[in-house]
Amino acid sequence: MSQKKNKRVLSLFLSVVLIFGLLSACQSEPPNPEGSPSTDENQSNAGDVENSIIKEKRDIVILDPGGEQDMFDEIVRLFKDEYPDYVGEVVWIPASTGETVSKLVAERDAGKPYTTLCTNGYDTVAAGIDAGVYINLLEKYPDRFSEYIEQFNEDSKLQLDRALGYAIPHLNSIGGPMITYWPDKVQNPPKTLDELLEWCKENPGKFAYPRPSNSGAGYAWLQGLPYLAGEENPDDPTTWTKVWDYLKELDQYIDYYTTGSALLYRDFNEGTRWMITTAVGYETNQRVLGAMSPECKQLFLDDLHWVTDSNFWSIPTGLDPQDEELSCLFIEFTLRPEIQALLYDSGFMYPGPVIEGVTLEDAPQESQDALNAVLTEELKAGIENYPHVAPMTMSQLVDAMEMWDDLIGANKLK
What we know:
Blueprint: H1 3-14, H2 39-44, E1 58-64, H3 73-82, E2 87-94, H4 97-110, E3 117-120, H5 122-131, H6 137-140, H7 146-149, H8 154-163, E4 168-176, E5 178-181, H9 193-202, E6 207-208, H10 216-229, H11 242-251, H12 261-269, E7 275-278, H13 280-288, E8 297-299, E9 306-314, H14 321-334, H15 337-340, E10 351-352, H16 365-374, H17 377-385, E11 388-389, H18 394-409
Parallel strand pairs: 1-2, 1-3, 6-7, 9-11
Antiparallel strand pairs: 3-9, 4-9, 4-10, 5-7, 5-8
């Protein structure tokens, strides 16, 4: 990738807030810091309390652009209970994608690492790879996580491949694109892209989707469109013709594009919009929290392909070996099936687990009750009836986002 392209990629990702991003560039990590244990030593001592390189309590400092702190309170408590001699405090630092990468770059350049672990969507992993701030976990520890990776469900295997070794998925969602609507306003919901366009012509300003580079719902919609439109190469936006023509025509009937899912849901809940694009996890969580009416309906256009989504763990470069070891140990802990069952939580990344066979029945009763109360029959059927595909690579998603900004909506943001 050229220097000019690298700058464009990093600039784009530093300007957006949390969504889900993608990966394509592969960089080798810098050499181990002086005194860092060899890969073999790290792997042979993984989880071995007596022989561990961790000799004193360490804090785990987690940059959290993934927004996961609330989900992990109980998991952190369990981890500290199991490793009381290793774990001091677990510090969570909220951050956007741009803030995360900027902070990690500053820490690296100053030679003063503070952050020891990151929660990531695709965007943050991608920007981190481009900035060279993450170690390649699977290259440095080729066998350490294999026990869990072998148990990954099919969607999570797709995510792992996209991460190129720099990140390990620990949360998995069906993703999108899905459409949510008010049934009293949309009495004959569209079933195809053409029908959606006709409906928008008859109801201008009542359909909306968010800017792709600022929203999981937006990026899922953009990546799902080439399947709905029948593009020959769905992963390469530079070859799309039907998608860009369609979005240009649709743009005539859209008032503006919100810079985030929350703003779009606000407009929808207020009745300003009657039909919006959504992502499964975010919407499920909104229903659990009572922020979305149970009267809302969900629909799935013909030829839908679910563009799956994940949150990942990544470890910054240049850490003290003991800090790196503790972060690896925490990653392993979160991939245990019994811990994965806790990640159903309140549907934030529904379903949540990356491990095959971890079902809602394995989750705490509170999660079972909350999710069973909001999971609709149409959603359950939609998840089963349509194929699941991996997101684009990082460079392809960056191209798609830049092209959307240039060709469609950058002058209509709100």
